[in-house]
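FW: tagging you since you asked about this chain on Friday. Here's the raw sequence from the shared folder, copied in full. Didn't touch anything.
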Amino acid sequence: MKDMMSKKIELMVGVFVALGIAALLMLSLKVANSGISGGGESYNLFAKFDNIGGLKVRSPIKVGGVVVGRVSNISLDEEDYTPIVTMKIYTEYNQFSEATSVAILTAGLLGEQYIGLQPGFMDDSLEILQPNDFIEDTKPALVLEELIGQFLFSQGSGDE
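HL: got it, structure written out here
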């Protein structure tokens, strides 16, 4: 009787562990999928920056905190060696005007970097950005080390 009870407990523990592993596997697949697909169809926009800081492929693209796409590629322009960022924008967000600006922002003080789109005003004289268009108005990343260096340099030069 006691031997049968311990076998039953071992079986229950085994089932519990198997369910836990299956739950972790499902969770990891869900997280990996949400970062890659992002909800279906998309189109590309491009932007050229002076400095991209720590921006990475798959970094989010946000408008007012809402994720509207992901960074799909980062490359160098062969002519002037400035970074070109390829932005994969979800097709439900396809009404950005050519007055749209883009900046590389940081989540918190030391958080990850992401792209912030600032939609331009809509006017009859302005056209809607089409797939594979370049966004002209860009603001580079603020690199914390450069800011600290400028601050220390300005403090040191004031004492002389």
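FW: The chain has a mean pLDDT of 84.
HL: agreed, and Residues 61 and 67 are 6 Å apart (CA to CA).
FW: great, closing this out.
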